[in-house]
Amino acid sequence: MISKDISNFLNELSDDLLIVNKLIVGSYLQFNKISVKNNKLILSCIEGNDVKTISTFIKLIEFKNGKFDFEDVIHLFETSIPSKDISVNGAVYTPNYIKDYIVKETLCKIKDSNLPTIKVSDIACGTGAFLYTVAQEIKQKTNRSYFDIFKQNIYGLDISDYTITRAKILLSLLAITNGEDEKEFEFNLLVGNALNFDWNNQINQFKGFDIVIGNPPYVRAKNLSEETKSLLSNWEVTKTGNPDLYIPFFEIGLKYLKPSGILGYITVNTFKRSVNARNLREYFKTNLFDLKILDFGSSQIFANKSTYTCIVFIAKEKSNEVKYQKITAKDFLNKKIANFTRINYKLLNTKKGWILNKPDVLENINKIESIGIPLGDKFPIRNGLATLSNDVFIFKPVNEDENYFYHQNGKLHKIEKGICRDVIKPNRLKTESEIPTLKEQIIFPYYQENAQANLFDYKSNKKIAFEEDYFKTNFPNAYKYLEGNKVQLLNRDKGKNAKYKWFEFGRTQALNDLGKKLLFPYMAGQPYFVYTDQDDLLLYAGYAIYFDSERELKVLKRILESKLFWYYIKKTSKPYSGNYFALAKNYVKDFGICNLNENEKNYLLETESLEDRNDFLFKKYNINPKAIAD
């Protein structure tokens, strides 16, 4: 694998694509002592090369890497991209063992006699890594020339012209390295946007691809251009909501797939549960596609990317079942791919999200969700404040006096106590005793519309932002401090929220939330629910469950800190590295809160033994504790 130093060397040049291409190609050829005499594309990449820069680069490769093979070329092509494209093109280097597996699994569905005439496509091909792997595999199986394979079997599309150029360079190098130094190769590699590209207009008598493979671009909805958002509305799976860019690539790939064809993707695994993939789940279920998912859970596949992935194979033939297996990256590398669990589509809830697991687990989850009242229906669950500039608004005082908190931020700032509120970050919190030491102050430039409001009448608790003159006059120190950060505050949300005053929070959520509560984090390795009766304690980076009864909240705390609840979370929630799991509202709201009489509530509150409380709850939910051991 290419070292970080080598990648950094190229990244300093990444905005000059011509120089980067010349450096990678020239160094690869020189390092491996490959001579090119005929191919015009590769000759253009080495013409006029800076010998000194190439020599420096090769020495770095020899020192750090010791080799410079094709995977290194692919890695450098896929990671040395212009800085402007880093957050919007979704490109990421796919490990070789993943590409090999997907290519072999899809090609094995094709009869050897049909291989010379098949059409294989990557509709977001980037620099051609998957197509390179396909070309190698077809070559090995048929012994046909790369010239013919490129011309007749390989098709690629990408939105960036420079990535298509790199794909052509990569495939040309593959052929040349294997003795085919043709003057020109005929490629079916096209520049276009997959969201509105029509393959029927590009290929004569097109009847569909035999195989569609790849790694669809993963770009979050918030980073999509307005043009892209408009194009997403043309696809059934992304007509509504705020979908990420990878989602329509399933529908696009299947549209251009032959009825007998197969699709193979490495992609994020969040489509099973995420709200923005509801339409995609419904699309799979309605069409009864033969869907096979190899889920890596929290295992990290992509280097330097906190992305949770799965391999998906889809055939257009009808099936009543989804085939599913959860596997670690280590087991996958060791080829420990066991039998897949088969789950009937009828058992999968499109709206709530798919829970893909063994039948006994699904039965337990159904028991838990069917009992009593769902948590989200019985108790208000609310997110914390979102200032979009926590480093400006939130601080830990280094000192205080009767009228002021003192905030050390480069220099010492004096902030009026009258504009500050107590605030806490549940993501750090594990016990009630930690609240006094973890509590911070937040500059809160709002007043309550109705000062006599009941704490639990949320409408009456509405907070209104100060008028700027009032703020400046009554809290001059806090105003001056925020004014010193005005540029940063104006740039929140890329300056989109022009309707709000510059000193307001970036979102209005949680401004009106008051009352007794259980505080809990976004994610955790075990359940932490911390009770506080400080009605006006605000929160950020976490959640709170509100209720006006201390007793009811403390009973709830006992239930949510149980082994039963954590079993439910581990089987239904989003996993993270380090054996952490998401505790977002969407993952906890359907947990059933069983009906308890007063004696049972007393038992939970008064019994100190966690094991005894766990046993009580297992019986209450009619679940065998031995059956859920993992």
Can you tell me about this structure?
One of its GO terms (molecular function) is site-specific DNA-methyltransferase (adenine-specific) activity. It catalyses: a 2'-deoxyadenosine in DNA + S-adenosyl-L-methionine = an N(6)-methyl-2'-deoxyadenosine in DNA + S-adenosyl-L-homocysteine + H(+). This is site-specific DNA-methyltransferase (adenine-specific). With 630 residues, the protein is an alpha+beta fold. The chain has 4 domains: 79 residues, no CATH class; 261 residues, Vaccinia Virus protein VP39 (Rossmann fold, 3-Layer(aba) Sandwich), CATH 3.40.50.150; 106 residues, no CATH class; 164 residues, no CATH class. Helices cover 35% and strands 19% of the residues. A 9-stranded mixed β-sheet has the order 3-2-1-4-5-7-6-8-9, with helices on both faces. The longest helix is centred in the first third of the chain and has 17 residues. The radius of gyration is 29 Å and the shape is globular. The two termini are 35 Å apart.
Give the SSE map:
Blueprint (H helix, E strand, L loop, with lengths): L3 H8 L5 H15 L8 H7 L4 H14 L5 H10 L16 H12 L12 E3 L6 H14 L3 H7 L1 E5 L2 H17 L11 E3 L17 E6 L11 H7 L15 H8 L1 E12 L9 H10 L1 E12 L7 E11 L2 E6 L2 H5 L7 E4 L14 H12 L2 E2 H4 L2 E3 L6 H4 E2 L3 E2 L3 E6 L1 E6 L3 E5 L10 H4 L1 E4 L2 E3 L14 E3 L2 H7 L1 H8 L2 H5 L26 E4 L2 E2 L5 E3 L5 E2 L3 E4 L3 H11 L2 H10 L2 E2 L3 E3 L2 H4 L3 E2 L4 H9 L3 H11 L10
Parallel strand pairs: 1-2, 1-4, 2-3, 4-5, 6-8, 16-23
Antiparallel strand pairs: 5-7, 6-7, 8-9, 10-27, 11-24, 12-17, 13-14, 14-15, 16-17, 18-19, 20-22, 20-24, 21-26, 25-26
